[in-house]
Structures are given as structure tokens and as C-alpha cells.
């Protein structure tokens, strides 16, 4: 009797300790009265299988976000392609902050969605570390925003409404990303390449998650610093801008063609250094677009909170060995669910704040001047700067300047004002077609080689002064189309020879052999002629690519705008004029 009671007591104690559950629920749940209560990610009697509805739901949301980012990126490229004066697909794909954010969000959500849709596929070979790539991509996108806001805060006279990438902070961005992806590469080597045990793999994953948490915490700090300065305190160099007012006025006094006067108008360019900030650094509330301001603050706070949540969850995953076994499975499930929702929210934030993919200048995150409601009134500024004859003023135009006043001449081929290489004047043309980049003109000559007067200007018929060299740039002569056509010619010649050999071997009839051999020779002749023609064309292109156009660089000191009067006056108005223009006072 005593032994029976002792055995029953032992069975009850074992059941209360969870010994009644098979395989101790695989370490993925709690044993309750002999039944496994699994974590939300797993299912089954032993918690050995994945919870497919849960994974499909989370993965489907991530894939939907990736699809939206892909569509936005495509529309952005197509819109930029249509805006170009000289459409070029490569120029439309030029790296900008907007495109990079779309790409990062697309890759991060795609990797996360693929992992949740098929978790079994990511448990073998190199794919085990692929889900961890989500955090380096998230760090890249967040650090890009931080660097962009740093330039907004520190750089003056930048056209934020134009598509651009980082300039002064580019080196810092690259350095930080080298550190991030070096950690990812080290994780892949440690977990997948090296012969590491299962316990060690789990330990290393926790270590790398801790590293990502530390780096993300640093990014969040700078994210809040620059975000608060720009969008809460409204401080930064983006409030300061140089404005130029160009006024064409009629010259006083009689003038006639008989007197030999062919000049009747005077062009005056006057510049104003605008500063919307007061002496104490504040901004007049009447000059603020409160709708955009509230949207930016809401977006900033929401992303910062979600990033802080991810930092906390990564830190808790790093220290999971100390607390997970002591917390009931229901709490662990809530922890996992909120973690996934935070990951979805951080990724979804990018396409939401970048919603206007076809007009990014309307987005507060890319154009901080959207926060300003009261800009400099151009007509009012012209009246204030005019010499007293306001009724005679006409053709008033204002431009924002980047760097200095008067640099308005662009290359007539690429129209890319962001390029730093100097402009040249290779012919006698004046006006909008006078300036061109050396490389742009050389590319133009390469593409138009073979046409009559290809080395002459099509407008003024001036012969370009070129210097030929003995060096041939074959990489400029052979394009992708040339390589494809030459490869096809070689394939046709080889196949025709193989066909003739097969006919000779299979058919003993002389007629069949003659027809097969003759047809093969004809194909070889056509292919050889085709090959020779394209090789000669590539040689000529390479020869043109090696020339150097002899010309003088465009003098920046000359007037950048051809006028009838040849009289250009540049004046810098006082800040009182600016304040009157902003307040609408006479």
C-alpha cells in the first residue's frame, strides 16, 4: 500500500513538472496537464511544426509592402525618365535618396516575407542567416535618412526640390554601412561556413543581434537629434537661401534705328540672401505650413518609437537565455507578436512617407521647405528692388541659387547642372547651345559618326578642332548591341559549318552534299560580311572615342545669360527688403 502511494505521488510530481509531455514540447512551449501549449510560431503535439496561418499572415503583409515599394520605385524611374529633356534610361536610374529608400525597403520586406512564407527553407545551408539581413537593410535606410537630415540642417543653398543623393555626408554613410555589412558577412561565415555546433550557432546569433541593437540605438539617437532640430524646432540652413530677381526695364529716352541704337532694354539681376529665422532662431508661425509640420512630427515620432521597440526586442532576444524559461508562454507570444508588428511598421513607414513617388518635391521627408508656407513673393520682390519705374518692369523671374549667383548655363546635351566637370565652348554657337561637357560632346560624336559632316557643329557648321591619338578605346567602340551581333555571327558561322559536315556525313548523294556545302558557304559569307561591318564600325567608334577636343574652357566670369543690352548688374539687397517682401509691406 505504501509503495503504491509513493508511486502515485511520484507520477503526480512528474506530471506537475511537465514530464508527461513528449520531448518536453521541443523547447517551444509549456506543458499543461500533459498537453503542450506551444508558442505562437509553432504547432503540433510536440510543438515541432510551424504555425502556417501565423507565418502566412505575417509573410503576406511583408510581401505586400515589398510589392508596393517595387511599384513606387518603378513609377519613380519612369517619371524621371519622362522628365528628362534628353531621355536616357541610365540617367533615369541615377541613384537618389528616394530610389535608395525604396530599394532598401523593398529588399528588407522581401527577405522578411520570404522567410515567413517558407520558414523551413531558411533552416538549411546558407539561408539560415538570410533573415538577419533585414536588420542591416533597416540600418541602411535609417542611416540614409539621418545623413540626409544632417545635410538639411548643415548645408545652405541646396535645391532640396531636386532629386539628389548625399554629398558631404556620403563618406560617413558608406563607412557606417561597411561596418553593418561586415557584421552580416561575419555572421554568415561564423554560422554557415565554419563548423559550428547548434549551441554555438544560437550563441553567435544572439551576439550579432546584440550588435545590431547597439548600432540601431546609435542611429535612433541621431535620428531624434536631427529630426527634432529640423521638424520640431525648425532650425537649419534650409531656412536660408539666395534669391535672384532678374528685371528687364526699358532704357529711358528716345531711341530709333536711324540713330544706330539697337539696344533698348537693360537687364538687372539683383540678389537677396533670405533668412526666414528671426534673431533668436525662431520662425514666424505665419511662415509655417502647419499641416506639413504636423504630418512630419507624427511620422518622426512613430518611426522613432517603432525603432526603439525593435532595439528593445533585439536586446531581449540577446538575453533570452536569462528570462524566456521563466516567463509563461502567453507572455512570450505577446512579445513575439508585438515584435513582428513593429518590424512591419518600420518597413511600412518608408512607402507611407514616400507616397508621392512621381512628385517627391512635395514630400516633407525629402524637401524640408515644404514646412514653409510663406515664401518670397517674386512680384513683390521685383517691386521693392525696382528703381522706381514699376510700371515699366517686365519679364520678372526669380531663381534659387546653389553655391553662387549667375551660374545658370547648362550642357545642351545632358542638361545636368549637378555635374562638377567644367563646360567648354567648342564652336561659335551662343546662347543655350554654347556650353557643353567634353565627355558629352565626345559621346555625341561617337553616336553620330558616319553621318555627313559628323565632325562639324550642326548649328553653326564650325569644324571641331580635335587631336587624334594612337590609343584606341575598344571598350567605348564595342557596345552591348555590337557584342550581341558579333556573337550571333560567330554562332551562325559555327552552326553552318556543323550543318554542312552533318549533311556530308549523312547523305552520300552529290547533290545533297553540294547544296548543303553551298548553303553553309553562303551563310558563312553573309555572317563574315556582317561581322566585318560591325567590327569596322566598332573600330571607328573607338577611334572617335580616343580623340581630344581642343577648346578653351567656358569662362565663368563671363555673363551667363546673353542679353541685348550687354549690361548686367548684380546687387545684394539688405535684409530689410527681404522682410518687407515676406510681410507684404511697401
Can you tag this structure with a few keywords?
586 residues; Rhopdopsin 7-helix transmembrane proteins; 4-stranded mixed beta sheet; two-stranded antiparallel sheet; 9% strand; flat
Structure summarized in a few sentences:
By secondary structure, the chain is an alpha+beta fold. It has three domains: 49-236 and 278-371, Rhopdopsin 7-helix transmembrane proteins, CATH 1.20.1070; 242-276 and 374-407 and 561-583, no CATH class; 469-546.
Question: How would you describe this protein?
Answer:
This protein has helices at residues 2-16, 52-83, 89-92, 97-117, 134-154, 170-193, 198-231, 290-318, 320-323, 329-353, 378-385, 438-447, 474-477, 480-506, 510-545, 575-583; strands at residues 29-32, 35-38, 42-43, 49-50, 240-250, 265-275, 394-400, 423-424, 436-437, 466-467, 548-549, 568-573. The protein is an alpha+beta fold. It folds into three domains: 49-236 and 278-371, Rhopdopsin 7-helix transmembrane proteins, CATH 1.20.1070.10; 242-276 and 374-407 and 561-583, no CATH class; 469-546. The chain has a four-stranded mixed beta sheet with strand order 7-5-6-12. Strands 1-2 form a two-stranded antiparallel ribbon. A two-stranded antiparallel ribbon has the order 3-4. A hairpin with a 5-residue loop joins β3 and β4. α5 runs antiparallel to α6 and α14 (480-506) runs antiparallel to α15 (510-545). The longest helix is centred in the C-terminal third of the chain and has 36 residues, at 510-545. The N and C termini lie far apart (110 Å). The relative contact order is 0.09. One of its GO terms (molecular function) is zinc ion binding. The chain crosses the membrane at residues 52-79, 100-118, 133-153, 165-186, 206-232, 298-317, 337-359, 483-504, 510-531. It holds the Pfam family RINGv.
